[in-house]
Amino acid sequence: MLAGFLSLLLFGLCAGHDPRRDESLPRPSIQAWPSWVLPANSDVTLRCSTPIREVRFTFRKNNDALEISPSPDYPEGLAEFHLTDLKSSDAGEYTCEYYIIESPTIRSPPSDVLLLLVTGNFPKPSLHAHHRGEVTAGENVILQCQQPRNMMNSYMFALLKKGTSTPIKLQHAIGMETDFSLPSVTGRDTGDYSCVYFQPRAPFWASQPSDQLTISVADSPGATSTDYTSGNRAKSTDYTMGNIIRLCLSAVIMVLMVAFLLEVWCCQKWSPCGSRYNTELSSLSHGLL
């Protein structure tokens, strides 16, 4: 009787909240490699990590749990989920979470949502730069992505950069297009850019990527590199001045020594003071020793 009463009491206490969530646990991070915008038939790896050790991970797609087999090859606090031969049906919102092995009823908060897009469902957009030719560091660059005119619905746009696993920017369309702003560009912004448009809700269809647009950023006169050179020049000047001072002191000491030795030699040859200088020189030598 008592055991049954305690079980009912415990169930009643837990009914008002989710006992599996512990908001004090660190939120895991989720990443996609090589990117989370990929063409059909490619492969992608979803990676979930946390600083907590001795945990088990769960990946979810649109809140539905995915099967994952723990691998002994992965370091503690890390798990991977592999998707091969991607199809449009693989697109969606992915998250991950973990639970502590010793307390399987305690689960972490979910990671941020990772939106996986599989391109190729819609015609490709066009990408243009408002600024033509080479761009100078510090300038603002505007890239305009425009969907085809026969696509009447409004979509989300993503700006992509070759070699980067996540989109540079995500924006809603203004009519049939959107402008991506790259403020105060630097040499790091040099690269090949493209854009896609996609459905922000299921089934998350995405267009083919636009043709690539190359952005080349040149150093501006008097920029960071000049300041760096000036700093090196100042350091070089300091070193040169120090060397000059040391050389001057050495030259003065050498002149004094030559003059002193010359005077001693002259006294020894033409004056009876030679004995006195010999005595002083001997005393000086003993003092130095």
From TrEMBL:
<dbReference type="Pfam" id="PF13895">
    <property type="entry name" value="Ig_2"/>
</dbReference>
<feature type="domain" description="Ig-like">
    <location>
        <begin position="26"/>
        <end position="96"/>
    </location>
</feature>
<keyword id="KW-0812">Transmembrane</keyword>
<feature type="transmembrane region" description="Helical">
    <location>
        <begin position="244"/>
        <end position="266"/>
    </location>
</feature>
<dbReference type="GO" id="GO:0002764">
    <property type="term" value="P:immune response-regulating signaling pathway"/>
</dbReference>
<dbReference type="InterPro" id="IPR007110">
    <property type="entry name" value="Ig-like_dom"/>
</dbReference>
<dbReference type="InterPro" id="IPR013783">
    <property type="entry name" value="Ig-like_fold"/>
</dbReference>
<keyword id="KW-0393">Immunoglobulin domain</keyword>
<dbReference type="InterPro" id="IPR050412">
    <property type="entry name" value="Ig-like_Receptors_ImmuneReg"/>
</dbReference>
<dbReference type="InterPro" id="IPR036179">
    <property type="entry name" value="Ig-like_dom_sf"/>
</dbReference>
<feature type="domain" description="Ig-like">
    <location>
        <begin position="123"/>
        <end position="216"/>
    </location>
</feature>
<keyword id="KW-0472">Membrane</keyword>
<keyword id="KW-1015">Disulfide bond</keyword>
<keyword id="KW-1133">Transmembrane helix</keyword>
<protein>
    <recommendedName>
        <fullName>Ig-like domain-containing protein</fullName>
    </recommendedName>
</protein>
<keyword id="KW-0732">Signal</keyword>
<dbReference type="InterPro" id="IPR003599">
    <property type="entry name" value="Ig_sub"/>
</dbReference>
<dbReference type="GO" id="GO:0005886">
    <property type="term" value="C:plasma membrane"/>
</dbReference>
<feature type="signal peptide">
    <location>
        <begin position="1"/>
        <end position="16"/>
    </location>
</feature>
